[in-house]
Write a structure and sequence with these properties.
Strand content: over 45%
Structural class: alpha+beta
CATH architecture: Sandwich
CATH class: Mainly Beta
Helix content: 10-25%
Radius of gyration: 14 Å
Shape: elongated
Number of helices: 2
Length: 91
């Protein structure tokens, strides 16, 4: 981890702030295997009903499943619906 990231992580600990804000990390909320909410994304790379690849700081988030749809997409938030079988953080 770089000095800058270590400093930001320590700062988040001291001020009890969420690390995803200071470290530019994604926040992923999974509801069972049928819904996913991703905050702090950088855009959609690939979108099919079986695979959704989302660009995030430091890599990609790869979602695999069936009947995958993006229900809502905003500048920093994405809501995915469908049967989610596999979730991968690819660097």
């Amino acid at each position: 981890m770089s000095f800058k990231k270590k400093f930001r992580s320590s700062l988040a600990d001291v001020f009890e702030l969420p690390k995803e804000i200071l470290l530019d990390l994604p926040r992923v909320t999974l509801v069972g295997n049928v819904q996913m909410y991703i905050q702090n994304h950088k855009g959609v790379v690939e979108y099919t009903d079986k695979v959704i690849r989302i660009s995030i700081s430091g890599g990609e988030l790869v979602i695999q499943g069936e009947g995958l749809t993006i229900k809502n997409i905003y500048s920093e938030e994405i809501f995915v619906d469908g049967l989610i079988y596999h979730l991968e953080y690819a660097v």
